[in-house]
């Protein structure tokens, strides 16, 4: 029942179906099914004002006004790209903002969603990493990104579906914000939410092994792993988290995840960087790694590879490989029987391509300052990178 002493309003975007049912039953003293009506108003019709929820009685609407709100992220600016990609900068609080990107393609529309303001990991080739880290996003701030895009697109789940896939691949490491991400993904997959099938929601991780296992226990979404290197020495250099969870451990956790999901594949993302990880020797190592994964699962193509040509951003020391080098790498994988699509660069005219998301991060890690210092040092050095 209502706690009259409580003064702060519950943001309903913070709750999944179960949480909302409890809120209606325990806090408002209402029937649980009322929660279903409200979910539809919010996620199917994009209505945030309780007075517009016309199938709710007047008394319930008044109760909701008093104790709840639907607070969606504020759009700071939005930018359409020439290729149909659309980017939003969403204000999260006074000083932070995150980016969300919609990428339409033949027969599908994918939304790339952020999970943190910045990122605490320090992948060397990632624009978000140069921004440092501020905080985890709440469930409302994560699902709010989907809400903003769905409203903009006029998406109607089950009918006029413009938003067909969500990838948790924006700013941040989603498994470091486990509970909020899992709750938000539950709304994405709920028929009363966005109605997406499990395999159309993908969580991408840099390889937090224990959390991959935990995810397998509570969720059935698709798993993608930011691999980027086929051996530990190189991967530790590019993805420092690899020092803690080396490739063998990471692959084993992916095997366990796929086994729980009874034969679903795992996608391995491989960002190709010129003269760093794009050589034939790397392609051959990658083939072996993927073959071992298939063998462990006794399934052809259990490991899928996505090749992503590096998207440069200001100040980075990495370069995109020549097209010929990308084709050579892909051919070596294809010749070994591995399908390895090269991801088309989308939205690069609005800095919305993979690895380019930056947002506005009030950095609490000093990494922005360090990155700026390294740029200054490089400029003083005549543009030559003196970093190891
Ligand atoms: S690649 Fe992902 S995990 Fe790595 S720093 Fe960037 S946002 Fe974080």
Automatic annotation (TrEMBL):
Q: Which cofactor does it need?
A: [4Fe-4S] cluster
- Per the record, the major location class is cytoplasm
Which compartments does it reside in?
A: Cytoplasm
- Keywords tagged on the record: 4Fe-4S, Cytoplasm, Disulfide bond, Iron, Iron-sulfur, Metal-binding, Methyltransferase, rRNA processing, S-adenosyl-L-methionine, Transferase, tRNA processing
Q: Where does [4Fe-4S] cluster bind?
A: 119, 123, 126
**Swiss-Prot/TrEMBL catalytic activity:** adenosine(2503) in 23S rRNA + 2 reduced [2Fe-2S]-[ferredoxin] + 2 S-adenosyl-L-methionine = 2-methyladenosine(2503) in 23S rRNA + 5'-deoxyadenosine + L-methionine + 2 oxidized [2Fe-2S]-[ferredoxin] + S-adenosyl-L-homocysteine; adenosine(37) in tRNA + 2 reduced [2Fe-2S]-[ferredoxin] + 2 S-adenosyl-L-methionine = 2-methyladenosine(37) in tRNA + 5'-deoxyadenosine + L-methionine + 2 oxidized [2Fe-2S]-[ferredoxin] + S-adenosyl-L-homocysteine
Extract the InterPro entries matched here.
Aldolase_TIM (IPR013785), Methyltransferase_A (IPR040072), RlmN_N (IPR048641), RNA_MTrfase_RlmN (IPR027492), rRNA_lsu_MTrfase_RlmN/Cfr (IPR004383), rSAM (IPR007197), rSAM_sf (IPR058240)
Annotated S-adenosyl-L-methionine binding lies at 172-173, 204, 226-228, 311
Molecular function per GO: 4 iron, 4 sulfur cluster binding; metal ion binding; rRNA (adenine(2503)-C2-)-methyltransferase activity; rRNA binding; tRNA (adenine(37)-C2)-methyltransferase activity; tRNA binding
Which residues are responsible for catalysis? 99, 354
Q: What is the protein's given name? A: Dual-specificity RNA methyltransferase RlmN
Identify the coding gene. Answer: rlmN
């Amino acid at each position: 029942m209502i706690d009259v002493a409580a003064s702060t309003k519950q943001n309903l975007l913070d709750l999944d179906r179960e949480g909302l049912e409890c809120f209606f039953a325990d806090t408002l003293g209402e029937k649980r099914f009322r929660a279903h009506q409200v979910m539809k108003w919010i996620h199917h019709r994009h209505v945030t004002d309780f007075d517009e929820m016309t199938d709710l009685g007047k008394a319930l609407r008044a109760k909701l006004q008093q104790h709840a709100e639907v607070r969606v992220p504020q759009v700071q600016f939005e930018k359409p790209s020439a290729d149909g990609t659309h980017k939003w900068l969403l204000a999260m609080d006074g000083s932070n903002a995150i980016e969300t990107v919609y990428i339409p393609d033949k027969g599908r529309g994918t939304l790339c969603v952020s999970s943190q303001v910045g990122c605490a990991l320090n992948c060397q080739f990632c624009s978000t990493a140069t921004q440092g880290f501020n905080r985890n996003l709440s469930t409302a701030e994560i699902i709010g990104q989907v809400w903003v895009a769905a409203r903009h697109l006029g998406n109607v789940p089950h009918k006029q579906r413009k938003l067909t896939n969500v990838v948790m691949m924006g700013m941040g490491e989603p498994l470091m914000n486990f509970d909020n991400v899992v709750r938000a993904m539950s709304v994405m997959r709920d028929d009363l939410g966005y109605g997406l099938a499990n395999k159309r929601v993908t969580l991408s991780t840099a390889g937090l092994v224990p959390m991959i296992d935990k995810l397998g226990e509570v969720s059935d979404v698709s798993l993608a792993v930011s691999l980027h290197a086929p051996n530990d020495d190189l991967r530790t250099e590019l993805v420092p988290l690899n020092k803690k969870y080396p490739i063998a451990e990471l692959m084993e956790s992916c095997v366990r995840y796929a086994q729980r999901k009874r034969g679903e594949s795992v996608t391995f993302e491989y960002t190709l960087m010129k003269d760093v990880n794009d050589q034939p020797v790397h392609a051959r190592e990658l083939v072996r790694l993927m073959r071992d994964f298939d063998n462990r699962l006794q399934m052809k193509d259990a490991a899928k590879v996505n090749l992503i040509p590096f998207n440069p951003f200001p100040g980075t020391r990495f370069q995109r490989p020549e097209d010929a080098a990308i084709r050579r790498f892909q051919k070596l994988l294809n010749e070994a029987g591995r399908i390895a699509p090269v991801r088309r660069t989308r939205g690069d005219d609005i800095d919305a391509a993979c690895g380019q998301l930056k947002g506005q991060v009030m950095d609490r890690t000093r990494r922005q300052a360090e990155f700026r210092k390294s740029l200054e040092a490089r400029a003083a050095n005549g543009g030559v990178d003196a970093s190891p």
